[in-house]
# Entry
Amino acid sequence: MNNVLQMVWLIPVLPLLGFLINGLCRKRLSKTMAGIIGSGTVFLSFLVSVYVFFSVKSGNTHVAHYFDFINITALKIGFDFQIDQLSSIFLLIITGVGFLIHVYSTAYMHDEEPKDFAKYFAFLNLFVFSMLLLVMGGNFVIMFMGWEGVGLCSYLLIGFWFKNTNYNIAAKKAFIMNRIGDLGFLLAVFWLISKLGTADYQEVFANVSKLSVTDITGITMLLFVGAMGKSAQIPLYTWLPDAMAGPTPVSALIHAATMVTAGIYMIARSNILYTMAPVTQGVVAIVGLSTAILAATIALKQNDIKKVLAYSTVSQLGYMFLALGVGAYTGAVFHVMTHAFFKALLFLGAGSVIHAMSGEQDIRNMGGLKKYMNITHITFLLACLAIAGMPPFSGFFSKDEILAAAYERSPLLWGVGVAGAVMTAFYMFRLYAMTFLGKFRGTHEQEHHLHESPKAITIPLIILAILSVVGGWIGIPEVFMQGGHRLEAFLAPVFAQSNALTEKHHLSHATEYMLMGISVAAALVALVFAWNKFSNPDSYRDKKVEKEETGLGKVLANKWYVDELYDTIIVKPLLALAKYFNNVFEKKGIDGFVNGVGKAVNYGGRQIRLLQSGQVGTYVLMMVLGILIFFIIQLFL
Amino acid sequence: MSVTEILFWGLSVLALFSAIMVVASKSPVHSILFLIVVFFAISGHYILLNAQFLAIVNIIVYAGAIMVLFLFVVMLMNLNAESEPKKNRMVQFAGLISGGCLFLVLIAAITRSTSATNMMQMGGGDQGLIKNLGMVLFKDYVIPFEISSVLFLSAMIGAVVIGKKESPPGPPRGE
Amino acid sequence: MEGLGEAKYMEIKWYIGLAVALFCTGIVGVLTRRNSIIIFMCIELMLNAVNLLLVAFSKMHAASGVAQINPAVVSDAQIFVFFIMVVAAAEVSVGLAIIVMLYRNTHSVDVNFLNRLKN
# Structure
């Protein structure tokens, strides 16, 4: 099995190859070829990942050193890949879900021009490559390379339809917000290197006790700033809903299943640093929880099918950060995994719906799609149940684990978390009911056009639906089954250092049953309420026609006016400052200086020219004076 | 004061006075004649320094050939004091001042310098005799000597080319 | 030519002073006169001042111990002066030709007519 671990470089290199072929030959490749190359390379790397996963499961971990990336006297950073339990799980998620979404894309993007089609797959492959680099890197620098790579791909794919100005603006917003976070990450890495002289995971984690409390808190805070940007937490979350401008499979892959979980991965990877910085942990938990609640409230009032899912993603990411903040690293990784399944499924389902509706995204114009799209309907329902936390779907197990860990830390955290879960159930079923139940509310033309999507779309949906249902069974809590939490056992070596520092006090079984009961019951009530309310078309049809939202509803529909707030306090002052600099410094200062130099030289030239009288006598006089000056300098100075 | 010193001072005063007169005299012909006096004074110095070969060559080449050339040219052009162009007073003054400054600075530089010895041999030593210099010139320096003949040839051709009239072919007009 | 009088040695500084004085006289002449022939003569004067200095220095070497070790230093200097004279003769012939041509073109020997360098 060791040979398999020697082959890990194949995992990122295959998608890179796909990127190069698709990117360089995009004008010559047919759509079929581009699709096969794009999906095939990811599938091959998925196969290798599976191999690697089983090798790791049997106890092999491996750090592969390929070459020295940076090698100066005091600092040595190798190009290393670290394969252990944590990265192998992420490898499976990225390549597995990534492959399904590639297959889905071949159908979804079928209307594009062949060269755009190949370009799309090139970007997607590049994204997979960067993401793999991010999770496989053996030190923070390699991780940062992947980190930047996924940010770039995200930008490219959000702005894939770059002829639309709004999409471009969304892409730029995503990129800039990510850059703010990246700066934090970069500073943290510099800090780490300056204190420990290395960025290598194993060396850093082994020497973590050498860091002072200030250092460790500062580093973890800065890393968390990076995670905020990448994983869309308050205050840097506003890019994610706007990122829905990209093609729907991109939203599914990048902005739901993989890239946004990079922050979770990074914190889980450096768990020991966070365990040793309780202050940061508190901040992480509070930011996570606030994000979860804020995004959930916004999602209640959104009418764009993808926007609802986007805010739901932000909210679920908040849960993951809550888990990290309370020290439940396994829970966070578990939720990343289940979330990847059901959220990818939701997005792909939404994409299927949008495809059928010829680009319509407003759920007020949908309804009754159950009749027309059976597979999409059933898989979407399963995903909704999973995200709402209904047992025995996957979301129940992971969310329950997070909430239980939050309760251990503080019942208040748990209470707010349950409120968020209730809202999740509500808005998901509002979405479900408005889309699939009731009567069709769109135009006749759209109704005539409605159809079930082709196989390339439905098969990934079915696979993801199965995973959404059963994905949680690898982490069955102790209460139900002794030794049922196989994920925890599997990941134990990664978090061993942290777990040794925190004492585990397990909740009593009665408490745990009670917590589960309360959250499931509350979510169920919200679910049924939403189902009833929104499957009856009349109840909101009138309201939509009659009046706009008022009061809190209006605030929620406008996303708490956060975008407007940012616009006022950051964007506008910056623009004003830029304008000031442009008018005063650039035009008067720098231009004035540059033009002044030109004018001075011009004027000086005109004056000095007069010295060239052409009279030999003057020249000789000057020569003598020159000799004189040289002698005087030599002699007397 | 020994005879050598008397001769030195006499020749020096003669040379300097004549040099100043070269610069100061209005008529170019007078300048030329004073310059010839300067050359003779310098040849006298050469004899004092026991460099007879150079003394003879100096008189033959400079006083004999070159100055006669100058005289021919001046007479050819019929130059006299009246045709002498006047220079701007300011420029003349500036030239005088800068020349004087250069003199002072050079003297200052030399008084500050140190050397192995500050004495020199007057008379005595036979390296400057024609016989000895001839041996050196035709043994060690025979190639530069021959090359200098090429220089003379090229100078001659140059002078002919430059001095030739650019007028179309025909009998040269007498001037 | 042994012993013109009893003083066989003199200080070098007097010769240096004489040569510098002649040289500077030449420079003043170049700077103050406009007649190109006079300027040319002043240049010859400067050349002679330098020649005189070279010969004086060769005799200084003869007085110091250097000449005993290497007698060539004295004769070399004088050969050098000889070549300077050779070059000066060639230079004068060409220079006078130029002045003649200048006179033919401008009917003057004023160097200020030679301001074509300006354009």
